[in-house]
Amino acid sequence: xxxxxxxxxxxxxxxxxxxxxxxIIVILAATGCILAFEDELKPLIHxxxxxxxxxxxxxxxxxxxxxxxxxxxxxxxTIKRVQISSDPSRTYIFRTLKMNNDxxxxxxxxxxxxRVYVDPYSGEVRxxxxxxxxxxEIVLNLHRRLLLGEKTGKAITGYSTLIFMMILLSxxxxxxxxxxxxxxxxxxxxxxTSANWKRITYDVHNVLGFYEVxxxxxxxxxxxxWSFTDVDHWVENTLNGGIAKEKKxxxxxxxxxxxxxxxxxxxxxxxxxxxxxGRKSALISFPRTEEGTxxxxxxxxxxxxxxxxxxxxxxxxxxLQYRSYKDQKGSGSALRERNYDLHTGSILGTPGRLIxxxxxxxxxxxxxxxFIMYLNKKKKKPKKKSKS
Length: 388
What we know:
Blueprint: H1 2-35, H2 38-45, H3 47-50, H4 62-71, E1 81-85, E2 92-99, H5 106-109, E3 110-118, E4 125-130, H6 135-145, H7 149-175, H8 182-189, H9 197-211, H10 213-227, H11 229-240, H12 261-276, E5 281-285, E6 293-299, E7 308-313, E8 319-324, H13 331-337, H14 339-344, H15 349-379
Antiparallel strand pairs: 1-2, 1-5, 2-3, 3-4, 5-6, 6-7, 7-8
Helix pairs in contact: 1-6, 1-7, 1-15, 7-9, 7-10, 9-15, 10-15, 11-13
């Protein structure tokens, strides 16, 4: 009796929560599919941005390249970071942006957002991109915020993700049959392609939903960590067991006027190029305050938790902090560092990304097939009892 009651509650939750959030789930899942292989697609779509015409024997100093990128931008706009590939045929990508998190829409959120693609050998500015108009950037914001701004959009997608997690868990309860039999067991794991379209719709929803429930739950969990700061801190602190976090590195502000900024940037850039050998790419974020540092992040492969990063003093170039994923203290911090890889499937490499891509496609179909099933059930008319 209790099991039947739980099953009935799970069914009602599954149906009504699905009807409430179905459209948003379709948008989040569909945009996730588009973004799955963004890094691979962009260089194919825009080869001029990403590739130089001819490689040279030596690259120009980072300070010189940064200056040329800055000159290509409007006045008062400063470069904030540079992305560098270990592929010698790739351009350097300089980026700067300014945001208004109180804005109500995506277009109002970005006051400006530019990417400058520079040939590191000749110093030629290959292209200045207004990233606010970039297709993938718009899709990313649709995925994260529904184009509704930081506050409203983040709340809607966050709670929709929480609802989707509840839908998945209630779906598992419904998926498990009341009585186990050979026929039931077959229906749990296989789609009956010879059946009518209503049964096929049911099987597609039921069977495919089960096969992808684990990656979809991991996607939901990792999204909730980004959406709810309190949950993020609670999970990390609980798993860390009271281990104190490492203090943020700060540059030591020198007395008097500092005039060696170009020399220090070149020092940081040369160190990065040396460390980049045998790795995939590097990212250098420039200091934004007097105590800020040059933050360098080295990527080995598509698993971002394996990144190596360090902070360099902006006045001396000295490395202040060096961190590797092998040096992480506390299981909470280790899990938090893997959050992006859990969300994209890259924690398992390319096979994981493909599994997640398939999961996102199925997630896009689940609200659709669920809604069709709901309409089919509504159309069913109760049979009239014959009068005796």
